[in-house]
Amino acid sequence: MTITGCIFDLDGVIVDTAGYHYLSWKHLANGLGFDFTVEQNELMKGISRMDSLDVVLSIGGIKKSQSEKLELAKQKNDLYLSQLSDLSSDSLLPGVQDFLDLLRTEGLRIALGSASKNARYVIDKLGIGSYFEAIVDGNDVSRSKPDPEVFLTAADLINREPAELVVFEDSQKGLIASNQGGFISCGVGSPEILTNALFVIESFSGLNTSVLIEYIKEAKSKKTRIS
Ligand code: BG6
Ligand code: MG
Q1: Which of 23, 55, 190, 204 lies 20 to 30 Å from 43, alpha-carbon distance?
Q2: pLDDT tens readout for residues 90-115
Q3: Is 170 a residue of the active site?
Q4: Active site residue 16
C-alpha cells in the first residue's frame, strides 16, 4: 500500500487550541447564565464558529436574532484570540514538528484541512507555514465537517487521490468527513471517543511513515476479519 500525502486538522491535532476554544465557549455560556461541560464540547470539535454557537445556545435553551448571534460569535472569537498571544513553535503538540520534517524529507504532500477561520493566523504563529503545500480552512469552504468538502478541496490542491492520503483528526465529525471523502482516517486522541477512525494514535511522538503503514495494514486486516 502507498501513502502519498497527509492532511492535518489543526485544532487539537497540531496544537492544543481545542482547549482555548472550549474555555471561550464556556465563558460565553456562563455569561448567558448556564454551564457548558467538557463532554458537551465534544459536539463542537470540527464544526464552524456559527454552528458551534448554535450548539451552545441550544444547550442553554436560548434564542437570539442573527445580529445578536454575530455579536456573540465575535465576543467568543475575541476571547479565543486573546489566549493565543503566546503561541509559538513551542506550542506544537508532541512529535508534530519531527513528523512534518520526516514527511517533507520523504517527499510526501502535506496539507491542512481545518474548520477554523483563524487557521492561517495560528499556523503563522506556530512558524510551520512552509511545510504546507495547501491550506484549506473555514474561509474556503461552504459546508462544515462532517461534510468532506474541506478535505476533498485539500486533496485537489495537492493533486492526490483521497485513498492515498491519511487524514489526522481529533474529532468524530472530522473523521466522518474523512471517511465520506474516501481518505484513510487516523484519530489523534482517545480510541474510546474516536470510534469513527480506522485507527487511533495517542500523539505523533515516534511516528514515521513505516509505522503509519503498519498501523493502516493492521487496522484494515482487523476490519476484514470482523466483517
Ligand atoms: C475547529 C474547532 O477547528 O474550528 C472548532 O475544532 C471551532 O472548535 C472551529 O469552533 C471554528 O474555529 P474558528 O477559529 O473559526 O472560530
Ligand atoms: Mg480538531
Answers
A1: 204
A2: 999 999 999 999 999 999 999 999 99
A3: no
A4: no
